[in-house]
Design brief:
The chain is of the alpha/beta class. Helix content is about 40%, strand content about 15%. The strands form two sheets. Strands 1-4-6-5 form a four-stranded mixed sheet. Helix 5 packs antiparallel against helix 6.
């Protein structure tokens, strides 16, 4: 059984903390479904079967790596996402075709989300965002610049799958 454990919360008020806990409960519930497994194993793109920027891994290997929960800073196979979440005050960019909603630096435990986006996000969107950022912690990456296939990378596709499967929960 996979678990999502919030190790720390910084910058959130009590109402926001409750929102985060509900969203992470949904993330955890979806991680333990056969539907998630099926969606990852059957993932296909316009470029062929499989994820982009996948380090040569098959869909099954990607699923197993995500489920193992072995973050790069703690490679123990623990079947758990350890989350160190930060909410940072940041205003919506005046103009940007691809504004950042948050980040997780490589090798770092923390996942930061910007208030401009968080304040209007649904629980499902937030769960998808955290899934995206957490997949970086497990070692998956994508192009920094927007490309035609970036949406098919593990972080983007996994985040989108989590968002879709948590919607309506």
């Amino acid at each position: 059984m996979f678990s999502v454990k919030i190790q720390s919360l910084a910058g959130f008020n009590s109402t926001q903390e409750q929102f985060v806990k509900r969203a992470m409960h949904k993330f955890e519930a979806v991680m333990n479904t056969s539907l998630l497994k099926e969606r990852i194993l059957m993932f296909d793109t316009i470029t062929g079967h499989g994820f982009e920027d996948n380090s040569g891994l098959t869909n099954r290997e990607i699923y197993e790596k995500l489920m193992a929960g072995s973050e790069t800073y703690n490679p123990e196979k623990k079947f758990q996402a350890d989350l160190f979440l930060i909410l940072e005050e940041n205003h919506s960019p005046f103009f940007s075709l691809n504004p950042a909603i948050g980040f997780g630096l490589p090798g770092s435990k923390e996942i930061t989300t910007y208030t401009w986006w968080f304040d209007k996000a649904s629980e499902a969107r937030y769960a998808g965002h955290i899934a995206h950022e957490w997949s970086h912690k497990v070692g998956f990456d994508h192009s920094f610049e927007p490309t035609s296939v970036r949406q098919f990378s593990v972080p983007y596709a996994f985040g989108n799958i989590i968002e879709e499967l948590t919607t309506g929960m």
